[in-house]
Design a protein that fits this description.
Layout (H helix, E strand, L loop, with lengths): L2 H12 L11 H4 L2 E6 L4 E6 L12 H10 L6 E6 L12 H6 L4
Parallel strand pairs: 2-3
Antiparallel strand pairs: 1-2
């Protein structure tokens, strides 16, 4: 299995997930800290949220996991939430900053 091609598909799918309070996808927001894809098709995603009190703390990781699992070629997906390092606006992509009027 081409793990790089599968990782690209995962990133594409992550760009369809949004924090409901911010009109930017979670990938461009910098909430995704890491993606691992092994040759068997197992995908691991390390992510954070904008704050520990985020109203979608219970639902967003489940949404991410379900969307990634639905990608053809993905055998399984596991999302790990981390708070280290804490998210901050500097993690956003230039596209996200531009969309939010921060540039």
């Amino acid at each position: 299995m081409d793990t790089l091609a599968l990782q690209d598909k995962v990133i594409e799918e992550l760009r369809t997930c949004f924090d409901p309070e911010i009109p930017v996808n979670i990938y461009e927001l910098g909430l995704i800290y890491g993606i691992t894809v092994d040759p068997s098709g197992e995908v691991g995603i390390q992510m954070t949220l904008t704050s520990p009190n985020c109203p979608v703390a219970g639902s967003l990781p489940v949404e991410v996991e379900n969307k990634v699992r639905a990608i053809p070629g993905v055998a399984g997906a596991k999302v790990e939430i981390t708070w280290d390092p804490p998210w901050e606006p500097s993690r956003m992509s230039d596209a996200a900053r531009l969309q939010l009027g921060m540039m």
